[in-house]
Amino acid sequence: RKVVKFCMENKKILELRQEMTLKEKIGQLTQITGEHYVGKIDNEMVETGPGYSQQLLEGDTLYTIGSIIGVSSAKITNLIQSEYLKKSRLKIPLLFMHDAIHGYKTIFPIPLGLSCTWDENILRDVAAYTASELRASGIHVNFSPMVDLVRDSRWGRVMESFGEDHLLSGNLGGAMINGYQKDAEGKISQDGVAACLKHFAAYGAGIGGKDYNTVDMSMREFFDYYGKPYEIALKEKPKFVMSSFNTFNGIPVTASKEMMKDILRDKYQFDDIVISDWGAVSELQNHRVAQDGREAAELALTAGIDIEMVSTLYLENYQQILEKNPALLHEIDAAVLKILQLKNELGMFENPYVDEDLEETVILNQKSLQFAKEAAKKSCVLLKNDSLLPISKEYKKILVVGPFANTQELLGNWQCKGRFDDVVALSEGMRLVDESLELSAYETLEDCPKDELEKCDYIVAAIGEHWELSGEGHSSVNIELDKQQQQLIKDIKKTDKPYACVCFSGRPLALQDIIDDIPALLWCWYPGTQAGIAIAELLTGKDTPSGKLTMSFPRYSSQVPIYYNEYSSGRPANESSYSSRYQDCEVGPLFSFGHGLTYTNTEYSNFKISGHKITEGQDIKISFQVKNPSEYEYSEIAILYIEDLVSKAVRPIREMKKYQVVTVPANQTVTVELVITLDDLHYLNGSLQQSVEPGEFKIYINDLEHSVFTIEH
Ligand code: GLC
Predict the structure, then answer these.
(1) Omega before 111 cis (within 30°)?
(2) How many CB atoms lie within 10 A of CB 293?
(3) 79 membership: H or E segment, kind and range
(4) How far apart are the CA of 279 and the centre of ligand 1, in A?
(5) CA pair distance 690, 701, nearest whole angstrom
(6) Residue 184 — φ and ψ, nearest 5°?
(7) Cβ-Cβ contacts under 8 Å for 561 (sequence gap 6 or more)
(8) Is 369 exposed, middle or buried (0-12, 13-18, 19+ CB in 10 A)?
(9) Does the pLDDT of residue 1 top 50, yes or no?
(10) Chain mean position to CA 296
């Protein structure tokens, strides 16, 4: 990978900053949409929030702006760039930023699906392919990854998350940052883009699962759980962090010095660029912590929000703000310097344009499509299987039925520039993967001619929740499968044919009422461009599903929030009435975090532990063998949990501490070794101090209790 050389020495950058007027500096801290330079942009603009007045952009102000959101393609970005540079006094090129959340034109599974691979290599490569497509289309910054911890699948944005565990979310986010930036020698390479970690912080904990809602939690909960994924992912040095829409402890994060400075900058040591979320500076007025635009801008600037996204209150009010608070100039200068340094690192002063021939070779190329298929296969989770999958070879006449049988709308929300026309539908995928099948596909059973239904050997029900029902601004009170589709499953059952269900959705759904009628269930999330082929390879047994859940499935809509690492209760959940449970629902989720079946009959054995005591400098190693007696080579996900038997402050019933994704060749056995160190056992005690306490811990590998160790001081 080629490394971009600095085109200018830092000294030159400082000189450039010196030449800038105050207005030109504030322009660098402002991000607007692209149509101001070239007029209406058809089929190119992606808007992800309400419109805001972008005032005072006439005349030379427009040519001080630092970055553009929502347009892409080499042609358009080049056009905007050249119009801008013609009139910009200092010829500082525009940065282009975009949301390619799970791919740009080649669309990979939604992040929640990707997380079910548990595989950092896959997430890194997804990000790397996405970065190549973005950069070829003139984009420099991607608003991804999102590592907001989630426990409530009513929130529409769980689809963009990596689930309910903080360690896994942090690690997968870190892997994506690596993949986007493709840093070599600490610099973004020529086909990489700057990553933007978001949304800082705790955006996934909005009360009641409502988007943009208030967050209120203890600092202990924040530092041990909700803050952790950012803390971990920040180690991979994303160039940007985006602040979140929510309030935290009563203060909107966009105006929170505590969040943005004390925690993000000082505690987590982030020293690069902070950008607000869409319109969030202006929305401080809606939160009613600012009485007007001037106050909103001042609050955000003071909190350390470097770039204002979409609204233009910095530009409208900077003179008054600085008159009142001249010390802010120092921070403005620091922010401007970071932005100029990034533009320099990307080689933009030397060449602000992108080669318009690149897109053709980079976008939707065979390699990325092949990888999209692999990623899609590995993100599917087999939730249930009463020996009905894979579809037995003796069944040739297959009927695929349901609203997802023929549709190409399998990209999921945040589909960026993905086109449905490029997507392989489920029925099409089945035909491509096995030509010997006599396949027919209908949206409803009524559409299927009677004799065809009678003659078919096997039915695949293609069900789910429409992609537009999850994503930003799409929280729901009801997360159950709709009644019509429940009826479809009951009708299929009545035919007495063998059948299985394939389900698409952007969130875990609540399936208690229908699960007994589903003998086999493959959860596919939204798999992206290669959906149909990937699923067909799993259904027909060319490959085995191997994903494991990263988010618990509730039984009913009102059983959320639900997550595996709940704290121990004084009255632990059990069948008795005086226990921590709902009286009208079984205890626990329908499918829990870590659940996922394969076709392999894998066996774990030969557990060994290197010692039973952990001290400073003395770790313990836990090893075991994973035997794959099947014909499939696949990725086994081995998960180690601990249970802290007694502690001063309450601990979770179980905590995932280590995991490993191992390739196990067909008919072979591999040994897995996981190490637990003293550091892994730190937690914030009741006085908010990091501590490890002597005592006993149980170890579980997946669902099996394995061994006990102690910490000694
Ligand atoms: C939004 C989102 C954020 C996104 C931004 C820019 O409203 O919350 O995730 O990156 O707009 O499109």
Answers:
(1) no
(2) 20
(3) helix 74-87
(4) 9
(5) 26
(6) -130, 135
(7) 151, 152, 209
(8) middle
(9) no
(10) 30
Pocket of ligand 1 (CB under 6 A): 48-49, 99, 143, 198, 277-278, 472
**Å from CA of 600 to ligand 1 middle:** 41
124 phi/psi in degrees, rounded to 5: -65, -45
Containing H/E element for 531?
Answer: helix 531-539
Going by C-beta distance under 8 Å and a sequence separation of 6 or more, which residues neighbour residue 27?
61, 63, 64, 65, 66, 315
Cα gap 303→450, rounded to integer Å: 67
DSSP output for 218-241: -HHHIIIIISHHHHHHGGG--SEE
Ordered structural domains, the chain, with CATH: 27-360 (3.20.20.300), 366-559 (3.40.50.1700), 603-711 (2.60.40.10)
Phi-psi region of 212 (alpha: psi -120 to 50; beta: other; left: phi over 0): left
Mean pLDDT computed over 352-363? 97
> Does 390 sit behind a cis peptide bond, omega within 30 degrees of 0 on the bond before it?
yes
pLDDT of 42 higher than 90: no
For residue 266, the 8-state DSSP code is: I
What span, in angstroms and rounded, lies between the C-alpha atoms of 2 and 581?
57
Query: How remote is the CA of residue 97 from the centroid of ligand 1, in Å?
Result: 11
Question: CA 541, CA 34: separation in Å to the nearest integer?
Answer: 48
Ramachandran angles phi, psi of 517, nearest 5°: -95, 0
Residue 700: phi, psi to the nearest 5?
Answer: -125, 140
pLDDT digits 0-9 by tens, 189-248: 999 999 999 999 999 999 999 999 999 999 999 999 999 999 999 999 999 999 999 999
The position carrying tokens 């105050």 is 22
The 3-state DSSP class for residue 697 equals strand
